[in-house]
């Protein structure tokens, strides 16, 4: 039997997935992979994190080599080898060795194109200084420049990859300027969802320049089109990619409307013996049905596998692309799926939009973080068209659930009935996804009509009255201009005071507003809820305000060249977090010292717990991890009652006092002091766990006796100026 000849042009995600799948399906085939670069299988999504020192070893990014692929899969992998031309009639490819210049011809029975995409480079004077980050060679060039210890960096483009570059350059201790031609960071998101990301960047000292572009690069500066000059010793560009279709065009293959290779339902090109996968290929949009370019690793891997199935005669189904994506930026997690509102409104589609602001898990359990969610729904069919989320832990899994619901054809109101995993440290009994479903169901049933933040000005100009149902304290902290304050708990008795006409009701996040609308409607008043409340309105206004606002950013401190990059990055990160924590605590405490005392303590304790965990001493634990209560020995041999033995990272136990300070690794416990025993100072941390009535909007228990986070006593760390062992020595 004659062996099949499979030729694959391009490695990494799509090409290597096709090659290894072909081998698993056909042991006797001759499979050849041609890769123009020096590495055929590497973690391109991890490149920014080696740049920032998070991934310390360059070798960790190299997943497979030609030798390892030959040994395991019997693949003929050739790096530094370029496919020059395709002869479709003869079913051959002209191949050039980029090292020796030698040219040969390779025949094929089936050909897979996976050429990827090339970074866009705007023409400008000095543009050759701009680095990109697409492969290992790009990474090596960038690391070589960083070895010269620049103090400033300019990142051009505020998309997903651009923000990953910014984060890692900040971690290295560079002063970073971010320039984006659009009017917001993360252009695929809607503006009110992108605003918290821009705010976090500015808090970290990043000089964010929106609505402008770089016109010239000097030796260590960049000039913008508004005439300003920014420091730019190190320049990285991330302004998008273009599909690499030169080989396909030369071969006469059909291209799509967006300039990518056009493929059918079986990933076959206009030539029946040629398949194409990856970033160079147009995908069908799952929402609009139009063809578009979606450069995502997950799609490339999956389509490479499917192409191999199709080549070997199997029936395949290529799903339309949702474009589900996630990125982490300076402690924030941002994720999206489907289409944004702004894109759908341009298409003229009738929409219903939902904003919520739940917490990541049960608010009474330590560490809960507020998130912002947005769900875009077809107003006529209740079909989910898109979702976006910004927050901390748990954002990614909620967007994954919604993406799965979209793939399964669930309606928005069906989200209310999803049975999702719950424990206090992971979620709430009403998961944020369920909450979106509840709001959607209320809208479908006509119980709570709503208005969007960008529609508010026009509505008020038309005579609608804005009623703020938050507490007087919240109203004093910040209010929408033109609103009147009638707290929800007083609304029933004060309905007669409200002006005539339609009322627009709002609270902080929308839940109290929903209650107010239901109350007013049953008293005969025409009322609508401001969707997402004050937080969504504030984020939307901030997104527009920063476009034309002057950019005044304190310069980042110069790096200490006497210390290592990772040490400098840790110092800067800790300093930023400490300043933010202190400023937030002081401002909140000054306004509401009694109501927010637990919130301030929780924030401080979470920061210290994170810092100790990063040092490898301790970590926060879940109740499921907790061991039995036991009595342990003090260093002098006497018993210390009421401790809990928890498993520590690496298998070592950690001792946590039930009601006081102290997560202390065993190897860091203070030694016995023959001159006496002096126990550590203790901080009262509140009552034991119990289920309290809650205010879901604030994410805090309604009763002040709820238990905040465990206090971590930094003084147990050896070398700390207040080391407890020194205290004992003095006693």
Overall description:
The protein is α/β, with parallel strands linked by helices. The strands form 11 sheets. The chain has a 5-stranded parallel beta sheet. Strands 22-23-26-25-24 form a 5-stranded antiparallel beta sheet, sandwiched between helices. It has a 5-stranded parallel beta sheet with strand order 27-31-30-28-29. Helix 6 (191-203) packs across helix 16 (533-548). It is globular. It starts with a strand and ends with a helix.
Distance N to C terminus: 88 Å
Strand element count: 37
> Number of helical segments?
19
Mean pLDDT score = 79
- For the biggest β-sheet, the strand order reads 5-2-1-9-19
Low-confidence stretches are 548-565, 581-597, 608-731
Radius of gyration: 29 Å
Sheet with most strands: 5 strands, parallel
Task: Indicate the overall shape.
Answer: globular
Structural class: alpha/beta
Helix content: 25-40%
Give the strand content. 15-25%
Write the layout of secondary structure elements.
Layout: E1 5-9, H1 12-25, E2 30-35, E3 41-42, H2 47-51, E4 62-64, H3 66-73, E5 76-79, E6 81-87, E7 92-97, E8 103-107, E9 110-113, E10 117-119, H4 136-146, E11 152-156, H5 160-171, E12 175-180, H6 191-203, E13 207-210, E14 214-217, E15 221-224, E16 229-231, E17 234-237, E18 241-243, H7 246-250, E19 274-276, E20 282-284, E21 291-293, H8 297-311, E22 325-329, E23 332-338, H9 341-346, E24 351-356, E25 372-378, E26 384-391, H10 395-407, H11 432-444, E27 450-451, H12 456-461, E28 465-468, H13 472-477, E29 484-485, H14 488-491, E30 503-506, H15 511-521, E31 527-530, H16 533-548, H17 565-591, H18 597-614, E32 629-633, E33 639-647, E34 653-657, E35 663-664, E36 694-695, E37 700-701, H19 724-730
Parallel strand pairs: 1-2, 1-9, 2-5, 9-19, 11-12, 11-17, 12-13, 27-31, 28-29, 28-30, 30-31
Antiparallel strand pairs: 3-4, 6-7, 7-8, 10-18, 14-15, 15-16, 20-21, 22-23, 23-26, 24-25, 25-26, 32-33, 33-34, 34-35, 36-37
Helix pairs in contact: 1-8, 6-16, 17-18
